[in-house]
Design a protein that fits this description.
By secondary structure, the protein is an alpha/beta fold. Among the domains are: 171 residues, Beta Polymerase, domain 2; 151 residues, Nucleotidyltransferases  domain 2 (Four Helix Bundle (Hemerythrin (Met), subunit A)), CATH 1.20.120; 151 residues, Four Helix Bundle (Hemerythrin (Met), subunit A), CATH 1.20.120. The chain is built from 40 helices and 16 strands. The strands form five sheets. Strands 2, 3, 5, 6 and 7 form a five-stranded mixed beta sheet that branches. Strands 8, 9, 12, 13 and 14 form a five-stranded mixed beta sheet that branches. A two-stranded antiparallel ribbon has the order 1-4. Strand 10 and strand 11 form a beta hairpin. It is elongated.
Length: 958
């Protein structure tokens, strides 16, 4: 019987297979032919294994007795080096035959076979190198560095051995290196370079050279620096210099899987740690896709030239395409995400799925394809222990492979294989085709116009595209095209810009203010052009380009953020940006990761990057309408809480290192204003007060002790300094500490006792207003509870209603006279009559006037919670409460929209604004808090209101 893929005249292939199996089994001793079905399956699938069983019948006997047992490794006698090759080869054959047996018996899956092949290669390398090192030490001594310390060879494995996924009969890609220069200390000394070159060549020969027993492992040294033209072994310093000056994209892929497998492994790991910046760039590295395109083109040319369509490794939809796809995505993101730096393919594919860089469907399909193809690859090589990846042409071999894999014939196997390879080819093609597909809808006239600049091009093209200010936009674009940052671009970068600009132009034409949008885009591009990786990101990722253009045209604030910190482009690619916003626990975990850094500078940089990324994500969700403004303000406050908590820990570490710690003395940071009320704005500063609780005579227990007050004062100073320190990733927050007791003349940090006395005896009404929204945002739990008791005592005491109303109304009138920036037809959302501060004053007066009889008013800090508590206490009727909630949401949304577009929070009057103001004003008047008189008296010693030191202690969440 012949199959549709068998050539004419193939004959009765199944009968030929039966005859072949009979002949193979006849070669084995009768005593071990009791192997039954497993032995027959081996005879079908592996001439190599039958050959081993015939030459070493004890191997088959051992498998029949216990298939889990490993053949014992050989002892390489120093006195008999001529026997080493045979011992290694016979042992490798025995272990490999065991892998064949276990595979065909169904005892191992493909992962176990790859693990077994990897371990076997490492063991052979270790045995061979140990024997040769002893031999070389006897002849030439041991290499020692300038300090007299011994230096050993480091054997790096690249490729599948480095990745721990060696196929059955693969060669092994090795690179030799050594940590430092020196000379051997024997009777015939050699310089380190010559010593290790000779040792490396001897190792390759011992493993690779064919003998009567075959080979142990084929060794390929061509991946070393400079390839065959390079030295066999290089020092680490020479290796580092090579990668800095000569390293190419394909070498980044190769060294991605590098692993020390023999010799001085600890030194090898140190070198790989130093090489990490070469392999994984710190930024999103979409430039790696250009290297992948070149490699793909070279592979395609090789496939066409050598007719490798049936090559399941290099051909279309083959193993290499899965490897390249996973490795490319690792290279792109691994610099930012350490979890993507692994060597093994399937775990990294799962990590990419977890990071949402590969869809679950694609990840599952690729993982299954990889298992199918690697299993088939192993079976092709098990047939005759040949390093092959090509599907066989001979009908008998085809049937043997098919039957060994459980298929009736070759057609059945081919039917299973075709869709697997098609899936791989589709996924791999999609990785590199996104760029070109996104350009398909770009107007050709726009593209032509851009390429003709600065000297050619017609502004009429811009008018036709929809630009409202075509002349001014044209002038801005010509200036940009003439600028040195564009003129001096490399050919590759200019080609990327020529692909990106038409897309951005076409997308920005419909903007409300196209000229302003274009100026923002050009300012951003000026910064990006200095960083080729970011231009590559926009070129390779159409989704990021579309998001960026939309963001820049709608938000001046976010455009400035991206221009100043292009790393934020990462957020435009993160699929999580469209999903649920991170919760408080997730924000805490992301910020706390900075504490893993040992150095303060690195920790601050990492924390800044995290804060930038999360605040950007929050702002983008607000801009897109996926997050309500009040929810955005709450999340920004949570983020600030987490950042301050991390900074407190960093500052505490520094203080403890220098002065020890103050035993049994808790510390806390109190957030006032919009931070305390969980209504923080984008770009807002933080109103902070610092507390501690220690005995009067307490001091720190370090080598340079400080008394408690000085210790905590320095701690607070460090916290303020660290929050305001500028790093390459920006600055965390501006801090305002003027709301502490006694304001600017008071101590930076207060003891709990002093703070309680101040709030109970000397604080003004406006300071108690500020205390309404205050909450502990970081510090020790015991002091948090103590602060709550102090706050409750200060706010919950009985007050004279008339005096309270006079104080609150008077202060509000004074503030409005100084700070209201509204004018005829324009309204100040924060300070105007019926604005956010009026609402704050209303709620603060509600708490101060009624907390003594309604203690539930003390719990909430946020506006919506205070309104709800007022309604529950019967102090606000349902209609009033509902109207105030709506008014608050409307004013915050208006203010945030203006902040995002860098516009003043002064808005024209309108129906919705009028309704919000009316609700707040009516509630104020009903409460007797009409603050229309700017001449209302202020308490003696009250500071002049200005910005963040406003008596309310709050700044609106804008």
């Amino acid at each position: 019987m012949t199959t549709s893929l068998d050539p004419p005249g193939a004959g009765d292939v199944p009968a030929a297979l039966d005859a072949h199996v009979t002949r193979q089994l006849a070669r084995l001793p009768e005593a071990v032919v009791a192997g039954g079905d497993t032995l027959r399956r081996v005879a079908v699938a592996s001439d190599f294994a039958i050959e081993v069983f015939a030459r070493q019948p004890e191997v088959l006997a051992a498998l029949l007795d216990d298939a889990d047992a490993l053949p014992p490794p050989p002892r390489l006698d120093p006195a008999a080096p001529d026997a080493w090759p045979g011992l290694l080869r016979r042992w490798r054959s025995a272990c490999s035959a065991r892998l064949v047996w276990r595979d065909l018996a169904g005892l191992d899956d493909v992962a176990a076979t790859l693990d077994g092949s990897t371990a076997l290669a490492e063991d052979c390398l270790g045995l061979a190198l140990a024997a040769l090192e002893a031999q070389f030490a006897g002849r030439h001594g041991v290499v020692r560095d300038a300090a007299g310390a011994p230096v050993r060879l480091v054997v790096f494995a690249l490729g599948k051995l480095g990745g721990g996924e060696l196929n059955f009969s693969s060669d092994i890609d090795l690179v030799y290196a050594y940590e430092s220069a020196g000379e051997s200390d024997g009777a015939r000394p050699l310089a380190a370079e010559e010593y290790f070159a000779r040792l490396g060549r001897a190792l390759a020969k011992l493993l690779d050279e064919p003998t009567a027993d075959g080979f142990c492992h084929r060794v390929d040294l061509r991946l070393r620096p400079f390839g065959n033209a390079g030295r066999v072994a290089l020092s680490f310093a020479a290796m580092e210099q090579y990668f800095q000056r000569e390293g190419r994209d394909w070498e980044r892929y190769a060294w991605q899987k590098a692993r020390p497998v023999a010799g001085d492994r600890e030194a090898g790991e140190r070198f790989l740690a130093s090489l990490r910046p070469f392999v994984y760039r710190r930024y999103l590295d979409y430039g790696a896709l250009a290297g992948l395109r070149e490699m793909k083109a070279a592979i395609a040319a090789e496939v066409a030239r050598k007719e490798l369509a049936d090559d399941i490794k290099r051909g279309p939809g083959g193993i290499r395409e899965i490897e390249f796809l996973v490795q490319a995505l690792q290279l792109v993101r691994g610099g930012r995400e350490p979890g993507l730096r692994g060597r093994r393919l399937l775990p990294m594919l799962e990590a990419l799925r977890g990071a949402r860089q590969v869809t679950p469907e694609a990840a599952a399909g690729l993982a299954e394809a990889y298992r199918v193809l690697r299993r088939l690859e192993n079976r092709l090589q098990m047939l005759r222990d040949a390093q092959t990846h090509v599907l066989p042409e001979a009908p008998l071999d085809r049937l043997r492979i098919a039957r060994g894999l459980g298929h009736a014939d070759w057609d059945a196997l081919a039917s299973e294989l075709a869709p697997v390879r098609a899936r791989v080819a589709t996924e791999f093609g999609a990785l590199l085709s996104q760029r070109d597909e996104a350009r398909a809808d770009v107007d050709g006239d726009i593209a032509g116009y851009w390429r003709a600049l600065p000297d050619g091009g017609d502004a009429a093209v811009l008018a036709a595209a929809g630009f409202g200010d075509p002349g001014e936009v044209d002038a801005a674009l010509r200036d940009f095209a003439r600028s040195p940052s564009v003129r001096d671009l490399s050919d590759a970068a200019r080609a990327r810009l020529d692909r990106v600009m038409p897309v951005m132009l076409q997308a920005s034409a419909p903007a409300d203010r196209p000229l302003q949008a274009m100026r923002r885009l050009l300012a951003l591009l000026h910064n990006i052009l200095r960083r080729a990786s970011y231009l590559a990101l926009l070129d390779e990722q159409p989704a990021a380009l579309a998001r960026l253009t939309g963001l820049v045209t709608r938000s001046a604030f976010l455009a400035e953020r991206v221009a100043a910190h292009p790393l934020l482009l990462d957020e435009l690619l993160d699929l999580r940006v469209e999903g649920p916003m991170p919760g408080r626990d997730q924000i805490d975990a992301a910020c706390s990761a900075a504490l893993q850094r040992d150095d303060i500078e690195g920790a601050l940089f990492a924390l800044n990057e995290t804060r930038q990324a999360l605040s950007f994500r929050i702002a983008l969700a607000t801009l897109d309408g996926r997050l309500a403004a009040v929810d955005s303000a709450r999340q920004l406050a949570w983020l600030a809480d987490s950042v301050v908590g991390v900074v407190v820990e960093l500052a505490r570490r520094e203080m403890q290192a220098a002065h020890g710690q103050v035993p049994d003395a808790p510390f806390a940071v109190i957030g006032y204003g919009s931070l305390g009320g969980e209504e923080l704005g984008i770009g807002s500063d933080l109103d902070l007060v610092f507390l501690y609780d220690a005995a009067a005579d307490a001091q720190s227990d370090g080598a340079r002790p400080l008394e408690a007050q000085r210790w905590f004062a320095r701690l607070a100073q460090k916290i303020v300094l660290l929050l305001g320190t500028t790093t390459g990733a920006g600055r965390l927050y501006e801090v305002d500490v003027r709301l502490r007791p006694d304001g600017g003349s008071g101590l930076l940090v207060s003891s709990l006792v002093a703070y309680g006395e101040y709030q109970g005896e000397r604080a003004w009404t406006w300071e108690h207003q500020a205390l309404v929204r205050a909450r502990c945002i970081a510090g020790d739990d015991g002091l948090r509870d103590a602060f709550e008791r102090v706050r409750a005592a200060a706010l919950g005491r009985p007050r004279d209603p008339a005096a309270l109303a006079a104080d609150v109304a008077g202060m509000r009138a004074r503030m409005r006279a100084s700070l209201d920036r509204g004018s005829e037809g324009l309204f100040d959302l924060k300070q105007g009559e019926g604005g956010l501060v009026d609402l704050e004053f209303l709620l603060q007066a509600l708490v101060l006037g009624h907390a003594a009889t309604h203690p539930a008013l003390l719990a909430p800090r946020a506006t919506h919670g205070l309104i709800a508590a007022g309604r529950e206490a019967g102090l606000l009727d349902a209609a009033t409460a509902s109207g105030l909630q709506d008014a608050h949401a409307a004013l915050v949304a208006l203010g945030l929209a203006h902040t995002l577009d860098r516009r003043a929070r002064i808005v024209p009057h309108g129906e919705a604004l009028g309704a919000a103001r009316a609700a707040i004003t009516a509630a104020l008047r009903a409460a007797g808090l009409d603050a229309t008189s700017p001449d209302a008296p202020a308490p003696p010693g009250t500071p002049a209101p200005s910005g963040t030191s406003a008596p309310s202690g709050t700044s609106a969440p804008l």
